[in-house]
Amino acid sequence: MTQEITQNLAGRIVLVTGASRGLGRGVAEVAAARGAHVVALARTVGGLEDLADVVDTLPGEITLVPLDIADDAGLQRMCLSIHERWGRVDGWVHTAIYAAPLSPAAHVAVKELDKSIAVNWRAAQRLVTMLEPLLKASDTGHAILPDDPMVGAAYHGGYGASKAAQRALWQSWQAESAQIGPKVSLHAPAPMATAVRARFHPGENRDTLADIRTEAEKLVALLQ
InterPro entries attached here (predicted)? Predict the structure, then answer.
């Protein structure tokens, strides 16, 4: 690891939504390396299986949830299973995102707008509703949303508007939970060499971007 992580996550239940690649996968691997039981949700089955192969070599454990995050009934089944098995969630890192193609604000395709809202805002809100009781049931319940400074940038209207709505949801939840829990945080990672970044910045020199593992370690360090 490139950075020492001080906390021990042995015995903790950490849910990572969007765990099959990019920052989500990095978070899942780092959390498992610290002994957590990672509940890894993603739509990409192959990516989840690759993640499981890595976690098998680490101190922690993993439960795979191959699921479209926009599937309300599937999310309900997952949360019920978590409740029945552990009764709580100690940490939730939400990295699942839909990156709509770059487009002028006046030309965002309706299907891209609808999918951006469904994945980036509606699914996040549904998860907040379902996971809040599980997080409150933990002495260390903590939800973290990676923030994105590209909100409001040119040609990011479809993605940025839905991401801004997600941020507003998280900030409201953060304010509402400040005194009663769970702990809710926003965290802004440095720009990383992810597939989403490549889609928005084709041809960019990726050597100048932050290492995904390093940023994942910083994020996992927030879990308490």
Answer: NAD(P)-bd_dom_sf, SDR_fam
pTM, two decimals, is 0.92
What is residue 108's three-state secondary structure?
coil
Segment 55-90, tens digit of pLDDT? 999 999 999 999 999 999 999 999 999 999 999 999
Nearest to 98 by CA among 122, 126, 132: 122
pLDDT in tens, 4-63: 444 589 999 999 999 999 999 999 999 999 999 999 999 999 999 999 999 999 999 999
Q: What's the burial of 123, exposed, middle or buried (CB within 10 Å: 0-12/13-18/19+)?
A: buried
Three-class SS state of 42: strand
Q: What are phi and psi of 103, to 5 degrees?
A: -165, 145
Helices (H) and strands (E) in the chain, counts: 8, 6
Q: Are 219 and 93 in contact (CB under 8 A)?
A: yes
